[in-house]
Each structure stands twice: as C-alpha cells, then as structure tokens.
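Supplementary Methods S3. Complex input for the zinc ion-bound model.
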Amino acid sequence: MTDIWSVQKRSEVMSLIRGKGNRTTEGRMIELFRESGIKGWRRHQPLPGRPDFTFRREKVAIFVDGCFWHGCPDCYRAPKSNVEFWKRKVDGNRRRDRRVTRQLRSTGWSVVRVRECVLKRSPVAVARRVWRALRVAP
Ligand SMILES: [Zn+2]
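Predicted complex, serialized as structure tokens:
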C-alpha cells in the first residue's frame, strides 16, 4: 500500500482542509438547531478560540470539532507520512482546545464540545446537551 489514505478518506481530509475545519459539520449543526427549535445562536464571535456557535445571553459556547484536526480519541488515525509534523499539529490543537475551554469556563461560559462523529452518530444526544447547557445557564 503506497497511499496513506483511501480515496474516500482523502476526499474527506481535503474537504476539511478546504472548509478550514468544519464547514460540513457546522452545516449539520445548524440543521440540528433548526430541527430542535434552538434559536439565538451567533457565529464566530470574538471570544477565545472563536467558538463555532455562541449564545450570548446564556453564555454558552459551542465548538464543533472535526475528528481529524482535533485528534478524536475514537476516530483519529495518524497519517503515515510526515509523522512528526502531524503529531505536533494535532497535539497542539488538542492543547489549544483544552486551554480555550478552561479560559472560557473561567469567565463564566459553559462550553459544549461536539465531536464530528458524535454529531453524525447521535444528533439527538447532541441537541439534548445543547438544550441542557442553555437551560442551566444563568
Ligand atoms: Zn470522532
């Protein structure tokens, strides 16, 4: 096997790169909000980590994390070339995710991190998490 990724995987990776992370998963999230009657979200507010969605009044920040870039514990498979580069990159992203989450929480935000695969697998559970965060918000 000379190719690192299957054709399908490669096209997924390329679309992630083109979409700068999350275009398709963000689209799916918006659909889910719509279906679940979740309103009042905003995009890309100037907050630490630039959350994908924020609910300002409730102080809830939502991140939709692509499994590849954020090193999902279930799905991430390290590429077999440029091993060091990818390791540094993905480890760095994970560290930043943790730092951003801490930073937001320390200023009173509730943070919901939604993994791409979970959003695909169980959108209902994701909607429930968002609802819960919005409800318990101050
Ligand atoms: Zn995943």
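The two ends are 54 Å apart (CA to CA). The chain has five helices and four strands.
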